[in-house]
Design a protein that fits this description.
By secondary structure, the protein is an alpha+beta fold. Helices cover 24% and strands 32% of the residues. It has five helices and nine strands. The strands form two sheets. Strands 5, 6, 7, 8 and 9 form a five-stranded antiparallel sheet that branches. Strands 1-2-3-4 form a four-stranded antiparallel sheet, with no helix packed on it. The protein is elongated, with a radius of gyration of 20 Å. The mean pLDDT is 92.
């Protein structure tokens, strides 16, 4: 059955080219360029020349503002590009907000790890993230008139 589904999804589709690049986020194609948002730092947003679909070429890569952020969404209108900035691994890291209360209830780290469905070694990672906080979220606006050299116009946190 799975093979039938794969065939149905691939029907009338032919691969023209290939680019080995991480993705996972939004892809927007405008005017011969693909704009790809990435889920994992240090990848942020890639601008890819796809005017020759058989030979896609990365012309620019923009990293997230810090190692704790990802920028997996991208919108393009004319020569303006907008990218989001979100905390990487936020669903996992938010579990750290519960540690203090669970300790106040007298739970050990082993019990807390079990309650939060994380590894015992993750407790330190979660506590570090809580102590660090996160204030980078928002969006960035770029001038992409030169696709190979995007210029940051504004960062709205």
């Amino acid at each position: 059955m799975k093979r039938d589904v794969e065939y149905e999804l691939a029907r009338n589709i032919r691969q023209l080219g290939h680019l080995d690049i991480e993705g996972g986020g939004e892809v927007v194609v405008r005017g011969g360029y693909a704009y790809v948002g990435h889920m994992k730092p240090p990848m942020g947003t890639s601008i890819i020349d796809v005017s020759d679909p058989a030979n896609p070429t990365v012309v620019a890569q923009i990293t997230p503002p810090d190692e704790w952020s990802h920028t997996h969404k991208v919108k393009v209108v004319g020569d303006i590009m907008i990218t989001n900035v979100e905390q990487d691994r936020r669903h996992f890291l938010r579990k750290g907000d519960k540690i203090e209360g669970l300790r106040a209830d007298g739970l050990s780290d082993a019990d807390i790890a079990q309650r939060l469905a994380v590894k015992h070694s993750d407790i330190a990672v979660l506590e570090e993230a809580v102590a660090r906080g996160y204030s980078s979220g928002g969006f960035r606006v770029w001038d992409i008139s030169d696709k190979s050299a995007p210029k940051l116009l504004s960062y709205i946190k």
